């Protein structure tokens, strides 16, 4: 009983602290919650630098609401529980007005309870498995229907693929995505025996028998493709083995969801040429906005060969939207900004405009590219117009009837259209 | 000088067809520089209809993604590397245009669909090539989509063919078409199917699968029988394939653990930094390749002794500075070496960045040895298997035949007695540890060809190494050999049924149960030395 009172008292004080952060500070604080050490440092340091660059650019334009922006960088060290602690530190001690952060789904899940308890605001810039919509988070990366589903459609319609290998690393994102894809493929009439699902541990390096299985699976007279949610550096030996066993991209194309320019810059792309990737952004897309962004980035990092990638664009869009929403709301108060965010429009780097929807997900174009020998992608297909992100997949039995809508009167992240109920849980 | 002369000669020779080339072909080629990717197949088709073998260099460069055109006057050039420098040369003239840089040219795009079409085009043009291997691969390429025209061409070419393997391939193609053609007589089709039943080509199998659904019951039955025969031999080869995978994984385990078998097995030091010695070896390979970027093919031969020295010296250093001071205190040694492993990882992160480094595979190690269409062994794994066995034999010889080996065995069996006999035990300890670490460095060179070279490379192999040494019996090199191959083969035979994750778990559970039964491993040490 006593503990409960104490807890609510703490919650109350922290809530009041968070409610008027701008009174205490004469700068607007931007929290950066990306791992700078450990296994995820490879990918996440780039995003930290992107936020710093955006803050610098905004300050050149005079900041926001007449105040300068100030970046607060912390290092959660690829340690999932530490993400929650660092998020708490950012919100209670540093009193930041917004957080840009997280990469892996497990880190996001660990931050969620903290950010909802303290009513913070976070932008999450990476493609993910969906099945989530929190009031306090804006998802600027792709949901499955903005990456996985269009990629499968491309393979089916353009390359006439009939047999499918779903290969992934053994954790939440590939498992959920593959569950959605499997249901989707079966809906389209693909038979059970034409789908092969395979999971491997993080950092798997001995791909011999799996690649040989794929080869065998692919020699049944039907066009076969691999949909890969293999994450991180396990991709390098995987593609190497494909090349060694003589499987070319014309025989069995591999479409990957986690391989971008940044990943390719560290490896010999010769055996990968012709394999595919699905993203919302490629560095090779020729638009004025993109050219300006690349020049800015290469100048900021002082490296004329630095590449850009999709999560960077997602960070770029998220930051610009947040800046616009703050200007529109005239305050950095989380609730006001959250409402102002919905309906925000910002130019994409690949042309067109990204729109923030009621479910806190973006409407973005989807691109499919072939890997070239210089480590860049050649766009071979793109959607007409933009695809709205779907928080709850239509292809999973549990989430078919759920929608997320953060405007009045629903204000719910998981509203069940069948039972007309909001399940009450916040995420 | 000679080379330049030769290049000139080739240039003149290659330039001849350009003068004779039809105006139409030239127009088509210039059209390539303007056409959108989706319209390219039509242009390619026209090019093939108009052109002849003289266009092969264009098609080959296009297929490889090396075909470019100049921004200034849209003429075609090929990107190549001369002495490590990227240069562009005329596609027909073969002359290097030194003035062209990457800013002055644009790439002619290519995608998977075009690559497929290009392969077909090249194959058709190569049917009359002078090299039998090219003719054979051309016919094989054509198996996938045989049509009336190809059939008649092949039929005309068949009597002139002198090379037996090309003849066989042609016969297969002709039979495949005959078997599928309902206009042929039933006996001809049956004979064709019978011929096909000895072929292992994937396209033949696909063709037979279609034929087994044929309306003609006799043909369908014959196809089914042929398929059964093919599947039987495919399964036999699949077994060989799997055995090779197991041996290959075993050789990796052997390489990773054999150094540990010395430091842990012979000296009794639990060296948690063993994985980092492997990592140092892999990074040495990377540095060697950085130093000699134009001689990647030979870099491995430099990297092997270099890695042995780097890791070996680091091993001696660790032994002298840390381990010898903790003699007889295994727990402290374990913690200290674990600390060293963290220090080494961070050191590498600071020097080389936390990102993985790219180690290139020498050309003689990439690709595979194709025994037949269903069985091909990847060359890098084959070399590493042989290399692991060589290292093992060398190590056994050192321990059994050299004076160092004698001293090592003496010290490991009875330290104080050896000391009393005048063996410098401290020196022997340092050398043994250096030897074990050096071997780990060599393992790193091999692993750099298979996996990512990054700061975490060592951690991925330390558990496996301990598993092999404990399973094989501490202090026994032969045990390590048997254990490594047993675990490798068991893992690879489990993997197809259980998946990679479960297979590893099963193997671990098996070892735990095995150790319960025989705590000293497969080959326990006997006699007083074991106490």
From TrEMBL, chain A:
Keywords: Signal. The keyword Signal applies. It comes from the Bacteria. Residues 1-24 form the signal peptide. It holds the Pfam family Peripla_BP_5. NCBIfam families: urea_ABC_UrtA. This is Amino acid/amide ABC transporter substrate-binding protein (HAAT family). It comes from Marinomonas aquiplantarum.
From TrEMBL, chain B:
Keywords: Amino-acid transport, Cell membrane, Membrane, Transmembrane, Transmembrane helix, Transport. It is found in: Cell inner membrane. GO terms for cellular component: plasma membrane. It is a multi-pass membrane protein. Its main location: membrane. The chain crosses the membrane at residues 243-270, 277-296, 302-322, 382-399, 466-490, 496-515. The keyword rRNA processing does not apply. Coiled coil: none annotated. The keyword Transmembrane applies. GO terms for molecular function: transmembrane transporter activity. GO terms for biological process: amino acid transport. Belongs to the binding-protein-dependent transport system permease family. LivHM subfamily. This is Amino acid/amide ABC transporter membrane protein 1 (HAAT family). It comes from Marinomonas aquiplantarum.
């Amino acid at each position: 009983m006593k503990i409960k009172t104490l807890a609510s008292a703490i919650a109350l004080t922290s809530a009041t602290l968070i409610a008027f952060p701008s009174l205490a500070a004469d700068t607007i604080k931007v929290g950066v919650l990306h791992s700078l050490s450990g296994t995820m440092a490879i990918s996440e340091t780039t995003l930290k630098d992107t936020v710093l660059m955006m803050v610098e650019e905004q300050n050149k334009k005079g900041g926001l609401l007449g105040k300068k922006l100030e970046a607060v960088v912390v290092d959660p060290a690829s340690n999932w529980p530490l993400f929650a602690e660092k998020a708490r530190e950012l919100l209670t001690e540093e009193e930041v007005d917004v957080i840009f952060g997280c990469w892996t789904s497990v880190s996001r899940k660990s931050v969620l309870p903290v950010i909802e308890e303290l009513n913070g605001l976070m932008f999450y810039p990476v493609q993910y498995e969906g099945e989530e919509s929190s009031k306090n988070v804006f998802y600027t990366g792709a949901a499955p229907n903005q990456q996985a589903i269009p990629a499968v459609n491309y393979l089916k319609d353009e390359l006439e693929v009939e047999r499918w290998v779903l290969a992934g690393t053994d954790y939440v994102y590939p498992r959920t995505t593959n569950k959605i894809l499997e249901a989707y493929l079966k809906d389209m009439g693909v038979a059970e025996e034409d789908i092969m699902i395979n999971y491997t541990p993080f950092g798997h390096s001995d791909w011999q028998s799996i690649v040989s299985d794929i080869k065998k699976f692919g020699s049944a007279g039907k066009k076969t493709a691999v949909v890969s949610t293999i994450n991180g550096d396990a991709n390098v030996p995987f593609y190497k083995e494909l090349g060694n066993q003589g499987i070319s991209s014309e025989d069995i194309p591999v479409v990957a969801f986690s391989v971008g320019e940044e990943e390719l810059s560290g490896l010999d792309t010769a055996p990968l040429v012709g394999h595919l990737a699905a993203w919302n952004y490629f560095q090779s897309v020729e638009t004025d906005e993109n050219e300006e962004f690349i020049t800015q980035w290469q100048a900021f990092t002082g490296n004329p060969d630095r590449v850009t990638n999709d999560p960077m664009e997602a960070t770029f869009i998220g930051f610009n939207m947040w800046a616009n929403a703050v200007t529109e709301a005239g305050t950095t108060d989380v609730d006001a900004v959250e409402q102002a965010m919905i309906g925000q429009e910002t130019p994409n780097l690949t042309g067109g405009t990204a729109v923030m929807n009621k479910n806190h997900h973006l409407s973005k174009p989807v691109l499919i590219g072939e890997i070239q020998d210089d480590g860049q992608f050649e766009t071979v297909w793109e959607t007409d117009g933009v695809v709205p992100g779907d928080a709850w997949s239509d292809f999973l039995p549990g989430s078919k009837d759920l929608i997320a809508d953060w405007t009045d009167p629903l204000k719910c992240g998981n509203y069940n259209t069948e039972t007309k109920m909001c399940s009450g849980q916040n995420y | 000088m000679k080379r330049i002369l030769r290049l000139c000669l080739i240039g003149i020779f290659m330039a001849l067809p350009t003068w004779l080339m039809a105006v139409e072909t030239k127009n088509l080629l210039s059209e390539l520089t303007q056409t959108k990717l989706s319209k390219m197949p039509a242009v390619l088709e026209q090019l093939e209809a108009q052109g002849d073998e003289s266009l092969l260099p264009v098609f080959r460069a296009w297929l490889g993604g090396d075909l470019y055109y100049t921004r200034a006057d849209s003429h075609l050039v090929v990107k190549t590397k001369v002495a490590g420098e990227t240069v562009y040369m005329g596609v027909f003239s073969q002359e290097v245009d030194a003035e062209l840089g990457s800013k002055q040219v644009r790439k002619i795009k290519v995608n998977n669909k075009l690559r497929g079409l290009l392969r077909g085009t090249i194959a058709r043009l190569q049917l009359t090539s002078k090299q039998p291997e090219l003719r054979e691969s051309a016919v094989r390429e054509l198996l996938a989509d045989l049509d009336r025209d190809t059939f008649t061409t092949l039929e005309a070419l068949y009597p002139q063919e002198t090379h037996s393997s090309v003849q066989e391939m042609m016969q297969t193609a002709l039979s495949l078409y005959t078997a599928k053609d309902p206009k042929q007589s039933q006996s001809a089709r049956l004979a064709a199917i019978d011929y096909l039943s000895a072929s292992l080509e994937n396209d033949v199998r696909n063709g037979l699968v279609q034929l087994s659904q044929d309306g003609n019951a006799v043909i369908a039955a014959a196809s089914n029988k042929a398929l059964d025969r093919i599947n039987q031999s495919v399964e036999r080869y699949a077994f060989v394939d799997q055995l090779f995978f197991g041996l290959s994984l075993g050789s990796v385990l052997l390489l990773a653990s054999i150094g540990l078998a010395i430091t842990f097995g012979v000296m009794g030091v639990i060296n948690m930094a063993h994985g980092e010695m492997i990592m140092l070896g892999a990074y040495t390979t990377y540095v060697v390749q950085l130093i000699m970027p134009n001689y990647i093919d030979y870099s491995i031969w430099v990297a092997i002794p270099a890695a042995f020295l780097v890791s070996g010296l680091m091993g001696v250093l660790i032994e002298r500075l840390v381990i010898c001071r903790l003699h007889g205190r295994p727990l402290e040694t374990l913690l200290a070496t674990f600390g060293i492993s963290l220090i080494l990882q961070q050191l590498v992160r600071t020097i080389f960045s936390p990102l993985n480094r790219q180690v290139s595979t020498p050309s003689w190690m990439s690709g595979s040895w194709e025994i037949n269409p269903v069985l091909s062994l990847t060359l890098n794994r084959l070399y590493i298997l042989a290399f692991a066995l060589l290292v093992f034999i060398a190590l056994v010889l050192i321990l059994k035949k050299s004076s160092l080996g004698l001293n090592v065995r003496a010290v490991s069996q009875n330290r104080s007695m050896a000391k009393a006999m005048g063996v410098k035990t401290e020196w022997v300890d340092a050398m043994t540890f250096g030897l074990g670490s050096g071997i780990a460095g060599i393992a790193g060179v091999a692993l750099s060809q298979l996996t990512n070279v990054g700061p975490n490379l060592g951690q991925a192999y330390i558990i496996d190494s301990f598993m092999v040494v404990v399973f094989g019996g501490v202090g026994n090199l032969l045990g390590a050999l048997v254990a490594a191959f047993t675990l490798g083969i068991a893992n690879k035979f489990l993997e197809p049924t259980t998946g990679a994750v479960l297979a590893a778990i099963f193997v671990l559970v098996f070892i735990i149960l095995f150790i319960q039964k025989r705590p000293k491993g497969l080959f326990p040490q006997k006699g007083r030395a074991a106490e």
